[in-house]
Design goal:
mainly alpha, 5 helices, 119 residues
Length: 119
């Protein structure tokens, strides 16, 4: 999974730098790409959150239907993970990836984690 993410990231970086398919990304940039790929693949929390969210009904997020409901610990974890994924997406956008590319990378991350957890 990490190699696939590295390849996707490297292709996007090469495109943005105007490098040919056979040209190498400068070492310092490739180091950042490799680090980002490790982080993306290494974070197994995202898939667990996605799996748990898919099981939830809207009323189960707070346990009540009242407007003064207190957040459950699972709600806090979901919010933290959502913030984490949003931060990753923003970092990818800042790095020059399109919204579509950033979402594909995040979906690949979540799918990869889900397949690792289910194994």
């Amino acid at each position: 999974m990490e190699n696939r993410v590295k390849q996707e990231l490297t292709v996007g970086v090469k495109r943005r730098l105007g490098l040919g398919e056979n040209e190498r990304v400068p070492a310092e940039i490739q180091g950042v790409v490799d680090s980002a790929a490790r982080e993306v693949v290494g974070n197994s929390v995202a898939s667990a959150v996605v799996r748990e969210v898919s099981k939830l009904r809207p009323s189960s997020l707070s346990g009540t239907s009242g407007s003064e409901a207190t957040p459950l610990s699972s709600d806090v974890a979901l919010l933290r993970e959502a913030e984490h994924l949003a931060a990753k997406k923003n970092a990818l956008l800042v790095a020059g990836f399109s919204n579509d590319e950033a979402m594909r990378i995040l979906v690949a991350e979540v799918a990869g984690r889900a397949s690792q957890i289910e194994s």
